[in-house]
């Protein structure tokens, strides 16, 4: 029996030069099969990381009485640490010699301890933080004693038109570590390091402050959930790539 393929098309940015259609295809495929289909007949699997994207997903789901999960273009790809300030690559580092920086269980963020060494922590932990004023000559480290998650610390810094701190050399590591120990009497604090596990298949830049995970996601439940789905509310999660799901394509 040939399974009927159902399409629904919704236009994003109708009056924009970068107009993008979202197309729901309800024939279940694996993530790779879905991407191949999108690339052959449309553009790529859909990128879903703005409020507008999520609204259009909800519109499509409601109009088609769709209450399932569907593949989108999110996947567990490059495994690299980056600085939040200007999305810079990690050059200098001062990881503790015993620190495991390669864990792939969840998105991780970086702290500096009062030894000056860097360590890995879950981004959801509540810690003080250092903001960094890059416009100040030589840079200026600004301590925030409020215990926040890494994301909330980043939002706090950016609300002041600055960013979480970038540490570019051994002198800065030592100075910041010593200030934690002797001035602020703290063990560790967030800096601007985070590890981006996930990429968009169409090469769009991942905007982490805009990515909306469903409750409990990503959980990598079986240790092999490397592909992303979107649900009918526009929230995203991870799933094994060999699962067969409907999928959203994008087309320009």
From TrEMBL:
InterPro entries from the UniProt entry: C-type_lectin-like (IPR001304), C-type_lectin-like/link_sf (IPR016186), CTDL_fold (IPR016187)
Pfam families on file: Lectin_C
Upper lineage: Eukaryota, Metazoa, Chordata, Craniata, Vertebrata
Keyword terms: Signal
Signal peptide region: 1-20
Source organism per UniProt: Cirrhinus molitorella (mud carp)
Record-annotated C-type lectin domain positions: 16-132, 136-250
Protein name listed in UniProt: C-type lectin domain-containing protein
């Amino acid at each position: 029996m040939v399974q009927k393929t159902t399409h629904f098309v919704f236009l994003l940015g109708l009056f924009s030069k970068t107009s993008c259609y979202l197309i729901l295809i309800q024939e279940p495929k694996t993530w790779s099969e879905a991407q191949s289909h999108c690339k052959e007949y449309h553009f790529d699997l859909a990128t879903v990381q703005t409020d507008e994207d999520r609204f259009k997903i909800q519109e499509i789901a409601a109009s088609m009485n769709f209450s399932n999960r569907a593949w989108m273009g999110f996947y567990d790809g490059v495994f690299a640490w980056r600085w939040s300030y200007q999305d810079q690559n990690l050059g200098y580092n001062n990881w503790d010699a015993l620190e495991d920086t390669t864990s792939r269980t969840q998105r991780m963020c970086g702290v500096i301890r009062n030894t000056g060494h860097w360590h890995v922590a879950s981004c959801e932990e509540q810690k003080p933080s250092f903001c960094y004023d890059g416009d100040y000559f030589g840079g200026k480290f600004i301590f925030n004693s409020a215990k926040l998650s890494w994301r909330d610390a980043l939002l706090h810094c950016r609300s002041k038109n600055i960013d979480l701190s970038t540490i570019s050399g051994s002198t800065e590591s030592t100075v910041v570590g010593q200030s934690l120990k002797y001035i602020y009497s703290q063990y560790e604090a967030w800096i601007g390091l985070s590890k981006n596990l996930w990429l968009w298949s169409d090469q769009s830049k991942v905007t982490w402050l805009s990515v909306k995970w469903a409750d409990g996601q990503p959980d990598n439940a079986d240790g092999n959930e490397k592909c992303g789905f979107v649900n009918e509310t526009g929230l995203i999660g991870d799933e094994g790539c060999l699962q067969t799901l409907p999928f959203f394509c994008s087309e320009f």
